[in-house]
Automatic annotation (TrEMBL):
Organism of derivation: Fibrisoma limi BUZ 3
The protein's name: TonB-dependent receptor plug
Pfam families in the cross-refs: CarbopepD_reg_2, DUF5686
Alphabetized SUPFAM superfamilies for the sequence: Carboxypeptidase regulatory domain-like (SSF49464)
Signal peptide (from-to): 1-25
Keywords from the named record: Signal
Amino acid sequence: MYIRIWTVLITTLLCWACVVQSVMAQSTFVISGRITDAATGEGIPFANVAIKGLSKGTVSDAEGKYVLRTTQTGDSLLVSSLGYQNRTYRILPIESQTIDVQLPAAATKLQEVKVYAKGGDPAYRVIREVVRRRDRFDPARLSGYQYENYTKIEAYVNNFSRKRKNGKGPGPVGRLLGKLPAVTDENGDPAVPVFISETFSELYARSNPEKFKERVLKSQVRGVGVTDGSLVAQLTGASFQQYNFYRNYLNVLRKDIPSPVGAQWETVYTFRLKDTVSIGDAICYEVEFEPKRASDLAFAGSVWIDTTQFALAQLEVSVGKRANINFVDEIRIEQEWTTLASGARLPTQTHVMIDTDEPTPRSPGGLVRFFSAARNIVEGQPREVTFYDPSLELSDDYKVKDPSFWSSARPDSLSPEEWRAMRVVDSVRNVPLVKVAGDAIRLGVIGYQSLGKLNVDVGPLLYTYANNTVEGHRIRLGLRTNTGFSRKWLLSGYVAYGTTDRTWKYSGTIEYILNRKPWTVLGVRRSYDLERVGVSADNIGGNSFFYAYSRFGTIRRPYFQEDNLAYFRREVGRGFTQTFALRNRTFDPLFAFAFRPQAGDDDQRIRNSYRTTEFIWETRFAPDEVMLQNDNVRISAGATRKPILTLRYTAGLRDVLGGDFAYHRVAMTMKHSFRMGVLGRTYYTVGAGIIPATLPYPLLYTPLGNESLFYVGNAFNLMNYFEFVADRYAELQFEHNFSGLLFNRIPLLRRLKWRELITAKVLTGSVSQANLNTIPSTDEQGHPVQGFRALGNTPYVEVGYGIDNIFKVLRIDALHRLTYRDNSSISGVPVTPFSIKVSGWLSF
């Protein structure tokens, strides 16, 4: 009887407990608040928050805020943080409540006691397991994924109101900034917002082959010296804010920083297991780490590892002032990772803070914040490979000012201080002095100045004036249209005049954009200008500064050229760009030049001018390149991992549009850079070509020399202009930058942030006997003809070593010419076997 009663009673109680548990499971309890230091009132980041008696818990964010959601509740909330006393707070039996916590500092500090199991700190076993399993959780291993992304970027000028060491107030720059509208930073000091952007985009990725695409849907930009244009909208998206710590290296400000869970983890870092805490529904190891050498370019911070999966859950890392990064006092990255349905992990929230280094002890500083948040993540379902080209795409209606859209796009509403910053930045950029400064900076960077309502830009500033022995004072005026004129037509051109030769030069280009997706253009150009053999725009490439410099001084082997060009260019996808062109040009020398015609020509007289007609086909393969669209112009943001290959075939068409020669020319180049671990980064370019024809030497290959005091990256820096000619050649240009590997270990040099480098350039080639025979000893008037020199069996070699990042912008190279050191110059310019050259390189 008693047994039956107890059985019924126990059964009833169990059923009641199950009902209560079921009812509680249907309710979600939310506890939120802020954890602060009891003495200072500052937020305590990453404090542990848990319900007493339960494993459920969370941690506070960088500002001390926390939100704990749970279906189970208790009677008290336990809050703890390293260096503070633990505190317990009563929990009310309601669904939503706010509990603000103040933690007093620990009364006593114990000396650190390290207890290691066999094999060292247990953190090493944790990280070793994370590295072993990283292929399982790396989002780059997923067949495909996509999500919506919100990105916000803020930039401020701060630290301008502090008093100087002599007790006086801020300097003139500080006083000027103090007069501008400002907000208050976290330290209570004034800060002037100079840039704020918001971008909403869709991101797509697949693994085989590895492809990434961002489609910028909406963007709004407010800033000093910038416009709400297409280029800025692309740069402020998520493409340049990707931080995957499962990769071996993270590219931050163009610096390769080893990941604490990458292949170099044990070589670069030391680890210590600090604690075990609850993050969301997971219990995580908290592992602290720091570089083995404080001067190394590496992270320091903490990483939280899921104890059951050994996967990333959260991390907080920083790069300090001792690392060799220009203009940066500190970089801090905080990231939250989410588990997807497949088990893989993906960073869903990323905070990046860059505190800039002040140029002088009391000068203003800068602060940049990035925030990125992902939502509506879809796994699998990789798109067709062609879908990912181009890798960065801008929606036609990307500009939107509708406040309701941004209210729904933001993961969290803006704080009152953020709203004030967005209003203040508009006031700052409209200050007359600030507008002038912004225009000046834009002119210096872009080189063009807009003429306002005319929808025309004037420039480039760099080519406006030159002085040389042929033209005397050269004055040039250039114009181009912008998108206000047309989004389909791009017109550009210039006129130039020399005071000595009294000759007008000109150029005009008309380009029509047939399609933007894929990018397809059709263009024509006509020009008439002074050129020099071996130093033309064709072999200088995109080095605009060197091209402007080549217009100064003594011009040897000058000639006038009339150039007519029609071209068609299309980005066909998968990194391929195809170009087809028809070119007709003349060669009218202003120096002693002559050549014998090709065998079989009806007219065998010695001549000193000619015309060529060429069909050009070029294919360029850059699978890892990101292309940006600056209004009507495409700009390469460079490739990070894979080589860029270019193959060009040129066919000379005789008797077509007056062409005098029939010939073929094939040239190929490959450019690449790769990381060599802690040893730095290597850059190299390999090129080769062949011209199996008999032609005047200006139509053969002339390697680019450099007689200036400046170091030029794509030139042979100890070779004179037009020192060698080849009709078949191969070349290698090599540079390795150690990124301060050696200098960072020398105390007196570490603070200078100098970076050591080595270079080497090799050229081998030859000229056929038939091309050597084209040069007569005299022309028709009996004047001696200037010839050319060919390489022998020995290749041309120059090597060098140097230091860059001097005063953060200067580079000095010491160069040695190892071969042809006694080469007599045809033009009379002596050979330089050793030289020191300088250049300017602005980098982080």
